[in-house]
Amino acid sequence: KLPARLRDWDAFKQLRQEVEDFQTVLPLLTELSKESIMDRHWEEVQRITSSEFEIGPDFKLETLLGINMVPHKDDIEEVTEGADKQAKILSQLEEIAEKWAGETF
């Protein structure tokens, strides 16, 4: 346990805030790393966060940590939830198409 006077230091307050922010961002990073996230979802995240970045082989975690996702947490969660739902629908459509492709009339 830290001494009480240490908690009054600006450096301590800043570090605590950064840790709390990272705890908020970590689940978003997990969601954004799913296969269901497509280019259109990344574009939406960029729009929400008023940022621009390239998704490609040189894409780095540092980029996401630098776009200040914390104030936009709820909106980004909506994007990732929508991506999961869209992926599920696409999978179901593919199953239906496969089933009907094998049918003859």
**Strand element count:** 0
Shape descriptor reads elongated
Query: What structural category arises from helix and sheet content?
Result: mainly alpha
Q: How many angstroms separate the termini?
A: 75 Å
Number of domains: 1
Proportion of residues in helical segments:
55-70%
Average pLDDT score: 94
How large, in whole angstroms, is the Cα Rg?
A: 20 Å
Structure description:
The chain has one domain. It contains four helices and no strands. By secondary structure, it is an all-alpha fold. 65% of the residues lie in helices and 0% in strands. The longest helix is centred in the C-terminal third of the chain and has 29 residues, at 73-101. The relative contact order is 0.12. It has helices at 10-32, 39-49, 61-65, 73-101. The radius of gyration is 20 Å and the shape is elongated. InterPro entries: DHC, Dynein_heavy_linker. Residues 1-105 form the Dynein heavy chain linker domain.
